[in-house]
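User: DUF1800 domain-containing protein, Micromonospora humida:
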Amino acid sequence: MADQNVPPHRPHTPGGHTPTYEIPAAPYGPPSVSRGPQWVGPEGLGRQAFHQPAGTGLPHLDDDGDDRDRVGRRRALVALGGTAAVVAGGAALAMSPQVRGLFGDDAAGDATGATATDGTPARPSGQQPSTVRTYTEQNESYMGSRAGAALKKNSPSGGRTFSGPADAAARTPVTVKTVLAKDPVRHLASRATFGATPTVLADIRRMGIDAWVRQQLDPEKIAPSAAELKLAELPTLKLTSQQVRDQREQLNERGAQPEKEMVDGTLARQIWSQRQLYEVMVDFWNDFLHVAADFDGGEAYRNSFDRDVVRKHAMGSYPDMLVAANKHPALLLYLNQNDSRADAVNENLARENLELYSVGVDGGYTEKDVRQAALLQTGRGVDDGRYVFRHDRHYRGKVKILDFSHPNDSTDPKKADQVIDAYITYLALHPSTARYVARSLATRFVSDTPPKSLVDRLTQIYVVNKGSVKPLLMSLFSSSEFWAAVGQKVRRPMEYLVATYRTLGVAPQAGPGFRQGDSRRTAFAQGLRQIHDKLRELGQYPMGQPTPDGYPDVYVAWTSAGTMVNGWNEAADLIAGNRTQFTYTRPEKLVAKPPTTAGAYVDALALRLVHQKLSTRERNLILGVAGVSATARVDATFNGAIAAVARAILASPQHHLR
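Assistant: Predicted structure for DUF1800 domain-containing protein:
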């Protein structure tokens, strides 16, 4: 009786529960990224230079030919780009792959009594879920390896908050070993945006660090970019859920897919919006409070969730966001809350509200708390595309979850619904939620092994400001730990690709070689969909994780040679201008006045693409790609090898690190 109509939880470890979520496979097939540490470098992969005749360029790494030749080509770039896997420039690290119906009537009762009302021998109600299910948090489980142990050595044991970001930047020494330039402007641009560009760097230097951060914290005051204005070419972005449902037939005839256009639009904003910190936070919350784009119902409701929940509150208040999410059809359908009623309780949303969206698995709740919460939340659902509270399906009776208790006996539907809001707000303001959000933010912006000193201070800021986001970000950017963490984050596949578009200065207008192949969709819309498809191949795209835990935000979860090579090949396509839906700067035009010697040209091109010079060893590797010496004379095309040289720079650790 205890588990009647309560789908089992997703698997975590051997002996855990079987999957429960009804999520269809993505139409593009499973992602090719291999989760789990499979490859590191560079020391274990050799240091040999890669020589070939000038002008032949760097071949596609997956083309036909002798297998031994192909391995040699890969190792040439791996020797350069693989350094990024060792975040602070240390030795190669071996990483082991590890990951992670209650009552028969709705009369008022007391679910807090001594009589066992939930649990099974395998899931005793009085124990913590982490004890029962041996579950560890996603990011921390990945970092529980030798790689994580090595990275922790670079995390400071303490830190402090300064009067503002500029003061913190000026007074914080960078002592970790890293290939990145210890330039605070470059560091801020790399972490607070989806990739530094010459324009962003110039803006920060012109405005000053403090003024630029303040501007980014008020995104509504930043004018939309040309690409954001072109989002009108994605016709479903502004439709309400009801309009999508009403126009489903017409949208199908036009080939419009709302859940995919939402992802397309998100990518456009990441690449071209001037509200970069806002877009970084939208991405952060879409992983933290995750609802997959491709769930059954996503076509009608997921865009509204992005617009009316995540984007509305991304720079506002997390408690407001969590309350709004728990009344949105997307979350209610995604986690089966629409099916939960007093006589057949579904625990999915109640569990994830505790485990993923608030206090965290080690936040002190028990299996009994999960069941109590599931009872309290009964009655919430969706009817005709809108949120409803069905009082006749709601459990009435005393509940106690952690330190939240309530008689929950009102016969007034409005008041009964307000009790659930009060509980969700309580969760969002819980001290464990404050620490969970603080640790997640520090992981996103500072290090895969965030310093405890910073997490402690951000936790306090969250508590004092009742979950407001802007004070958290200002405190983070004013911390010594943020400015000391140069080189301590590696870009995930989506971040790498978006940063590549940004640094190459790809423009959203169609290029001269574009030929209209789909009369129903503009060049801009077609190009965004191609980026979207490529990211599906790489295994990470906005809101793409099928399960509610969101994407991991630590690099060891993404160590895959295949993914890295695929990203390099995409960079080669961009350098060549192969996506004709967009406009590109020809590679020989990336540097306005290219030097006439090869070594100086590589330095200038590195400053243009990765915003700093490369080490002598890295520069020599790239010169080897072109088959020339540093003193050789070259023209603007690098004697025909400019595309290969640019591609090699974009495979360097300076572009993989952020």
